Structure formats: structure tokens, C-alpha cells
Recover the amino acids of this structure.
């Protein structure tokens, strides 16, 4: 579901892959993700990943974030298949792992 553009300034260090190009972003940096470009992120650090996503147009409603929060609330790493199911339910297309 890349029918939106996104600007992602991280609150903690994170690696974004946008169109096949990997970029390590630290606090204060930002990465623009154009529409219809495959993208994802990876947290290789020891702290939880945090970033602010500004998405335009605003296609993702509060239901998406509630559903994702439910998947992420468990102990241990999140269930990637469940994340994909939530994404598809809300009109997004999960990218294959990088």
C-alpha cells in the first residue's frame, strides 16, 4: 500500500530501506518516502525503535494503529505474519523482508 508519501524523523536511531537504498537515521534526521516506493525499517539497536511518521494523504485511521498496537503488545518480538494481516486489512501491502 504505497499510495501515500511519508516523512519519518526518528526519535531513536533506526535504519530505513527506501527503494532498495539503506539509510541509518539518527535523531534530528528525516527520510522522505515517495508514494509507491517499497520501504521498510529495521531496529538493530538495543532500545525500542521510535519514529514519527507524517503520512499524506491521511489514509491510516486510528483503527490501524489500535490493531497494530494489539499485535505489538505481546512479549518478545512481534509476529510478522500478524503485522502483515493488519496491514492488508487496512489497504497496505507488506514488503518482503530486506
Amino acid at each position: 500500500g504505497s499510495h501515500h508519501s511519508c516523512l519519518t524523523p526518528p526519535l531513536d536511531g533506526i535504519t530505513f530501506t527506501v527503494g532498495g537504498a539503506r539509510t541509518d537515521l539518527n535523531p534530528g534526521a528525516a527520510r522522505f518516502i515517495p508514494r509507491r516506493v517499497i520501504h521498510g525499517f529495521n531496529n538493530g539497536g538495543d532500545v525500542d525503535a521510535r519514529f514519527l511518521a507524517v503520512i499524506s494523504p491521511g489514509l491510516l485511521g486510528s483503527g490501524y494503529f489500535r490493531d497494530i498496537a494489539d499485535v505489538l503488545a505481546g512479549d518478545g518480538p512481534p509476529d510478522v505474519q500478524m503485522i502483515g494481516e493488519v496491514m492488508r486489512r487496512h489497504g497496505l501491502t507488506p514488503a518482503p523482508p530486506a
User: Anything to note?
Assistant: The chain has two domains: 1-59, 60-92. The first strand starts at residue 5 and ends at 7. Strands lie at 5-7, 14-18, 21-25, 32-33, 39-42, 54-56.
